[in-house]
Predict the structure.
Amino acid sequence: MGSILEKINRFYRLGGVRSTAMENERLKDEISNVSHELKAPLATITEALSLLSEGSLGALSEKQKKFLDLSIQNARRLNRLINGLLDSACRENSKPSIKRSLFSITDTARTIMDSLDMIAKNKGIALEGVIPDKKIEIWGDPDKLNQVISNLVHNAIKYNRPTGKVQVSLEERDNSVNISVSDTGMGIPKDDLGKVFDRFYRVKRSDTAAIPGTGLGLSIVKDIVNMHKGAISVESEINSGSKFTVALPKNLRK
């Protein structure tokens, strides 16, 4: 994984599609290799999960099948995201694009919470949702916005403390939807708040040094939110927790 991240880091450090023609061709070759390194094991994982879900290796309980099917959905979504990311990175003079469709943001939030609930429970963390019962539909890219919420919830679990709490809230307004993810974790130093969305930036604290991460997640989240003409903000206090809020327009048809 280290070599993959080094290649991606080098791509952005040299300017990606803004490099010279020779650099661009070489970088395209490297990114193609990255694609293979990521997608080959992912395909194996997806196939193995599918075999398990189909009962090829023995009967499953309803709960076991539910979690396997969620894992398969996420593996396939990750494959689509890799394709989209690499395709965008390799197109010369390309602009970020999204695939707009009408979908339920409430269903998306609930599915994400279901898929991450076991991870939270294994750390002794309570994952709570404050999500309206009614279906709230918005125009946007379902896969990319799934990635936004998943990343924020996963971070809230990862950087939390044992027996802590993560709350996912969704609030509908006249023309927009606010999605908030708050935790009771380590918090972010005030000097770092303006940098957490920078590419490859990680907060330098002794209690987070051992937690694996690339510093890419929040920068990708911000890019996706910007593609949707939305906004993202963060509030945090050391040893009290953090709260990330995403505001999205409901009717992004153009």
User: Anything to note?
Assistant: The CA atoms of residues 147 and 221 lie 7 Å apart. The radius of gyration is 19 Å. Residues 14-18 have pLDDT under 50 and may be disordered. The helical segments are 2-13, 21-53, 62-90, 105-122, 142-158, 217-227.
